[in-house]
Amino acid sequence: MILKILMITYTSKKCCDCLCSVLSYPELKPIQSINAHPSNCICIKFDPAGRYFATGSADALVSLWDVEELVCVRCFSRLDWPVRTLSFSHDGKMLASASEDHFIDIAEVETGEKLWEVQCDSPTFTVAWHPKRPLLAYACDDKEGKYDNNREAGTVKLFGLPNDS
Questions:
Q1: Which of 24, 39, 66, 124 could disulfide-link to 58, CB 3.0 to 4.6 Å?
Q2: pLDDT tens digit string along 96-130?
Q3: For 143-152, how does the pLDDT look when each residue is reduced to its tens digit (9 = 90+)?
Q4: DSSP characters for 42-74?
Q5: What is the CATH number of the domain that holds 124?
Q6: Residue of 5, 87, 8, 82 lying closest to 45 (CA atoms)
């Protein structure tokens, strides 16, 4: 089964039951519904090749789904707080996930193995891979105590530069 384009929405029919609805685009007609997580889903990303999509949830789990079969291939459970952000690398081989934990988990998509744990001083709410290189940009909630809290400020950090390990 090959879907042209699909849109995924999340609804919670009852507490601790997050339903993933796959809709056709642009008609928005229901194609299939699947139980995705036992709590609210917060973020979703598709890999660049279109083979997988990943969902991050308030249950602190990241699920990797096969787009054609609409089945969960594997779960990543290294975070302790609700997953706030996800990003696939340009080649689709790595998946970065972050939360209020003070680290970013970078996993190999095909095996689920942890490749890196990027340490942070505060919660991370945004991660994004470079479109052509294994370089990860991320932004943390690190304003408190370091900057004037009355002004809007932020810091973008990079992981994957030659000196990183």
A1: 39
A2: 999 999 999 999 999 999 999 999 988 999 999 99
A3: 665 555 555 6
A4: EEEEE-TTSSEEEEEETTS-EEEEETTTTEEEE
A5: 2.130.10.10
A6: 87
